[in-house]
Amino acid sequence: MSEETRKKRFFLAHKKSSAFVVSMAIHAVFALVALTFVAVKVYIKPEQTFETKEVNRPKMNLRKLQVPVKDRKKTQAPKLRQNIVSPKINNISITMPEIVGVPGGMGAGSGAGLGGLGFNFDMGLFGGNRGSGNELIGTFYDLKQTKDGELTEIGQMVKDKQRPSGEMCKLIRGFVGSGFNEARLKDYFKAPKLKYATAFMMPQMDANAAPKAFSVEDQVQPSYWICHYKGKIAAPETGRYRFTGLGDDILMVRVGRRLVLDACWPEWIEKMSSWVGEDNNNRLFPMDNANFNDINFRDIHTQIDDAGGWDGTRQFYSVVQDVRVNGQPITGDTWNIAARMVIGDWFDLRKGQVVDIDILIGEIPGGRFMCRLMIEQEGKQYKPVACDAGVRRVLPAFMTTPVDDAKLIQEMRIDPNQVTLDGPLFGVRYNAK
Length: 433
Prior knowledge:
The protein is α+β, with helices and mostly antiparallel strands. 22% of the residues lie in helices and 22% in strands.
């Protein structure tokens, strides 16, 4: 039997088994193809494209940003060489005040540097160039010229060698009567520089000292000028106070809305204001403890009262001519007769109460100027000293801050038997509530 015949008989005998095997093979092939197709369908995705609708957006007109740019390469014009010549400066000696027991502590005020504590290292007799809030601000006026430099009526009379005392008194009386309204002085020459004063202790000095202090000595002749100081004060204690002092020629003090002192030179009594002192010792005690060779000045004071007193209707020198000592006139001692303290009116202050104050000083004919201003508190005990009018008390200088600069004290010519710097302080930064 051949090999081929044997194979046919084998397949015929096992035909069912063979058909099953063939069927399984065919299904396996189909399954393999199907799986391949699915895998391809799953893992090979066609690319997707997205289409959007066209949107019309508003167009904005952008501004061109302009930034200034310095062209460093630009050639600059060469600067001309300047020769600067500095004025000769004398050696300056600065005395630093000892800081002891500053009222209110080191935190008093918030001014720049030590100025906030009340110290002012450039302080002079007419004030300093800076303020800490405790000072009175001073303005200088020349009544001989307008703000444009033209001659006023007073200035023209001075030029014509006349004495415009009446015009001066009328002007000052109007200013004082207006409540120290500075609008009354707006047409007069005003120094551009201000001063910040804490005390008014100017001894006898050249009348040019004020224009020089305000840096207008080259523009103002030393006559017919005034300085108006204004500001606020507060008392360290509740009580009654009064001012005492003398000005050659002008010294007036206004507290609140009330004129409490007219201590002008006796030649101008009742001519610049209607104020009249009510104290019996008014113009009795000397400013400088002068004496008349042991003559009691109370006798001279009595003679003046008997002759009509310090009456504004009479000229000062005509009153002096009536005075006799041992039967002889003493007209040569007019300074000692005139340089007597004027005692002001009492006024009430509460501790920490802030009140307005105006102080007016000035010079009329020129020559010499002087101003002394003290303050008294009712009920206080003061040092007694002997003088040609008996016994007087040493009153404290009116001060808003301590005066502890040795150089300034020397310039003030403080005599401990005339005035003391150990007194109350009225600066608002110390005492205001």
